[in-house]
Design a protein that fits this description.
By secondary structure, the chain is α+β, with helices and mostly antiparallel strands. Helices cover about 35% and strands about 20% of the residues. The strands form six sheets. The protein has a six-stranded mixed beta sheet with strand order 14-17-16-15-18-19. Strands 8-9-4-10 form a four-stranded antiparallel beta sheet, with helices on both faces. It is globular and about 65 Å long.
Length: about 500
């Protein structure tokens, strides 16, 4: 593979690169149970799960049981006795396009327990995944990955003339439980947590259950080594001029010169796409993929294909093309999706149901170049909000941070960058709170937290007085010893 630019991912240290991967200083996690049974984590797990139940009567049934559930979960999770049994899983058949799939749903109580286990686990281990994977990761969905691939094609089409696409035969059913448990032990060593994660892995006679939240995370970890090996053999390009090195836990390699390396490899669950300069190079990359899959006891489907990008990359619900004459990259909605929407709109008479179908189709169409198709099917013109030049100005003049809220307990001991804040915010916890905008060091996804700590408020005001905020101030939030159940947080 002489033509392929090999980028060391884990083991080679170069003077101009910071290599990011799983850190032996952090993993395996030996004291995870405290984060799992933290009252905030248990409460938020219950709230999230119950609020997302589809049936209104179910939600009304479970809300009054919150205290009872949390008390029992704290006991079972705290002593490591929490288990999910195969006999209590409810079997359901769902359809993914033309393919029927069997999924399993545990009782609501067990789902809340799984949620409580996996939230802290995901917060730690997802930092080790490569950047170009998106399935079941907050802030990185299918549309996000679609645009990442589009942008990379525009930036380096010369080295992305040919693509290879594959997925694995019966992926979840084919995951070897022994290998999966070995994989989790690279990340977790807590003696109370491991038996519970082993139970979630082995609840099915073979493979991982399709339906448990844990399976999504475990599948990502199972393919992580394969991802990193593939990133070491595909081509890459550099993007984003930065003032200083950024240290990322998402599998990015950041050069000290301030350039981010972007690899020509993308994965959504088990659906993999990689790019090469020519077919010979693509087949050599494919040989590496086959070998890495063999190590994991996975089989690549016979439908694997290597084609020029001018024929269109069928990935994530879109066909993405490169027009050699104009030099433009553009995307169209997959034919099956168009036909399904057109037939539904022709068949459905209910105005409410019709608007739901139009909204769903628009959610796909707005990420592709198909305004005319949208008008033809719906009779409505589609305009992107970003093109309208509209900007909301709140009447009270206060800033609004439209991003995910995270509790202070869930971000302690993790390096973050403070970006901005707003004072005297009224919340359901009380008045005069500060809301702080931040992101984790090396990540671009923004989050916010609320605080009523007099110490943190004063320090934020001092940062603003010195002109540091809005800006980027790196810090770590630590928890101090309080009185009784009181938790005190501070910057360090």
């Amino acid at each position: 593979m002489d033509q392929i630019v090999e980028i060391p991912f884990m083991d080679v240290e170069l003077p101009s690169l910071q290599i990011i991967g799983t850190s032996s200083d952090i993993f395996p996690l030996d004291n995870l149970i405290g984060e799992i049974i933290d009252p905030t984590n248990l409460s938020e797990s219950f709230d999230y799960l119950v609020s997302h139940l589809e049936n209104k009567h179910q939600r009304e049934h479970f809300w009054p049981k919150k205290s009872e559930f949390l008390e029992l979960l704290e006991k079972q999770l705290g002593d490591g006795s929490f288990r999910v049994h195969y006999e209590e899983l409810r079997k359901m058949e769902v359809r993914d396009g033309a393919k029927p799939r069997i999924v399993h749903a545990p009782p609501v109580f067990k789902r809340i327990g799984i949620q409580a286990i996996m939230r802290p686990v995901e917060n730690h281990v997802y930092q080790t995944l490569i950047h170009n994977t998106a399935a079941s990761i907050k802030g990185r969905g299918m549309h996000w990955l679609h645009h990442v691939m589009e942008n990379d094609l525009r930036a380096d089409i010369e080295n992305m003339q040919i693509y290879g696409q594959s997925d694995f035969k019966g992926f979840y059913d084919s995951i070897d439980q022994g290998l999966m448990m070995e994989c989790t032990r690279e990340y977790i060593s807590d003696p109370l947590v491991l038996p519970m994660t082993d139970n979630l892995i082995c609840v099915m006679p073979q493979g991982l259950s399709k339906g448990l939240r844990s399976s999504q995370c475990f599948a990502n970890l199972f393919l992580s080594k394969l991802d990193k090996k593939m990133c070491s053999v595909v081509r890459c390009h550099y993007v984003e001029e930065l003032d200083a090195p950024v240290y990322s836990g998402e599998g990015l390699i950041i050069g000290k010169g301030g350039k981010v390396i972007r690899y020509h490899y993308y994965r959504y669950c088990d659906d993999i796409v990689f790019f090469a300069r020519d077919k010979k190079e693509a087949w050599e990359i494919y040989a590496v993929l086959v070998e890495e899959a063999r190590k994991l006891k996975l089989t690549i489907k016979v439908s694997f294909a290597i084609r020029p990008v001018t024929e269109g990359v069928d990935f994530l619900g879109y066909k993405t093309f490169y027009d050699a004459e104009s030099g433009e990259v553009y995307s169209l909605i997959r034919k099956r999706t168009k036909q399904k929407a057109a037939r539904a709109l022709q068949r459905v008479k209910s105005r409410k149901r019709r608007q739901q179908i139009i909204g769903s189709f628009k959610g796909m169409a707005c990420h592709a170049d198909c305004k005319h198709l949208y008008f033809k099917l719906t009779g409505q013109h589609m305009a992107k909000f970003s093109e309208l030049g509209l900007k909301y100005t709140p009447a009270d003049g206060k800033k609004r941070f439209s991003c995910q809220h995270m509790s202070l307990g869930s971000i302690t001991n993790r390096p973050i960058e403070l970006l901005d804040y707003e004072k005297d915010i009224k919340t359901r916890w009380g008045e005069s709170r500060y809301v702080v905008l931040f992101h984790f060091v090396g990540d671009v996804t923004e989050y916010k937290f609320f605080t009523d700590s007099a110490e943190m408020k004063d320090l934020l005001d001092q940062m603003k007085d010195r002109g540091l905020l809005p800006g980027a101030v790196e810090t770590t939030i630590v928890q101090k010893q309080g009185t009784g159940a009181l938790r005190i947080y501070s910057f360090s």
